C-alpha cells in the first residue's frame, strides 16, 4: 500500500505512514468484567492520545473501537491482548474491521454504559 504521492522520497513516505490514521474494532474475552477493565482501557487509550469507546457486553466480554495514528493503535492492541487491568485475565482478543481513515470520528475515549 502506497500512502504518499508519487515522487516523494523515502523520508516523505515514512512521514506519511507515521501520520496514517486507522480505526479498528475489538472484543476482549476472559475475566474482563468486574475488574475495572473499561476504566483502565480508557486511561491507557487517553494516555496514548487515542479516541474511541469501550463497553461491557451481555456475553461477558468487553468491546469497543480504537482510532488514531497506526503506531499508537498497535501499542493499544498489544496492551489489550496482553495486559489489561491488573485483576483481569485475558483469554483472547479479536480485532476486526481495520481500515485507514481520513479523520477521527470521536473527540475523546469514552466508557459506554
Output the keywords:
113 residues, Alpha-Beta Plaits, disordered N terminus, 36% strand, five-stranded mixed beta sheet, alpha+beta, 3 helices, 30% helix
Descriptive account of the structure:
There is one protein chain. The chain is an alpha+beta fold and 113 residues long. It has one domain (21-111): Alpha-Beta Plaits (2-Layer Sandwich). It contains three helices and five strands. It has a five-stranded mixed beta sheet with strand order 4-1-3-2-5, covered by helices on one side. Strand 2 (51-56) and strand 3 (62-69) form a beta hairpin. InterPro entries: Acylphosphatase (IPR020456), Acylphosphatase-like_dom (IPR001792), Acylphosphatase-like_dom_sf (IPR036046), Acylphosphatase_CS (IPR017968). It comes from Pan paniscus (Pygmy chimpanzee). This is Acylphosphatase.
Per-chain topology:
Elements: H1 10-19, E1 21-31, H2 37-47, E2 51-56, E3 62-69, H3 70-82, E4 89-101, E5 109-111
Parallel strand pairs: 2-5
Antiparallel strand pairs: 1-3, 1-4, 2-3
Low-confidence stretches: 1-15
Work out the helicity level. 25-40%
What is the CATH C level class, in words? Answer: Alpha Beta
Looking at CATH, which topology would you report? Alpha-Beta Plaits
The helix-strand sequence is HEHEEHEE
In angstroms, what is the radius of gyration?
15 Å
Helix count from the secondary structure assignment: 3
- Average of per-residue pLDDT values: 89
Domain Acylphosphatase-like: 23-113
Keywords: Hydrolase
Protein name: Acylphosphatase
Active site: 38, 56
Amino acid at each position: 500500500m502506497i500512502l504518499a504521492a508519487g515522487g516523494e522520497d523515502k523520508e516523505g513516505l515514512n512521514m506519511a505512514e507515521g501520520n496514517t490514521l486507522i480505526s479498528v474494532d475489538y472484543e476482549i474475552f476472559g475475566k474482563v468484567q468486574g475488574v475495572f477493565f473499561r476504566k483502565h482501557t480508557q486511561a491507557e487509550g487517553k494516555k496514548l492520545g487515542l479516541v474511541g469507546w469501550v463497553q461491557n457486553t451481555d456475553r461477558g466480554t468487553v468491546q469497543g473501537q480504537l482510532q488514531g495514528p497506526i503506531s499508537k493503535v498497535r501499542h493499544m492492541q498489544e496492551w489489550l491482548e496482553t495486559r489489561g487491568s491488573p485483576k483481569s485475565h485475558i483469554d483472547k482478543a479479536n480485532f476486526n474491521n481495520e481500515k485507514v481513515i481520513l479523520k477521527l470520528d470521536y473527540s475523546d475515549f469514552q466508557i459506554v454504559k
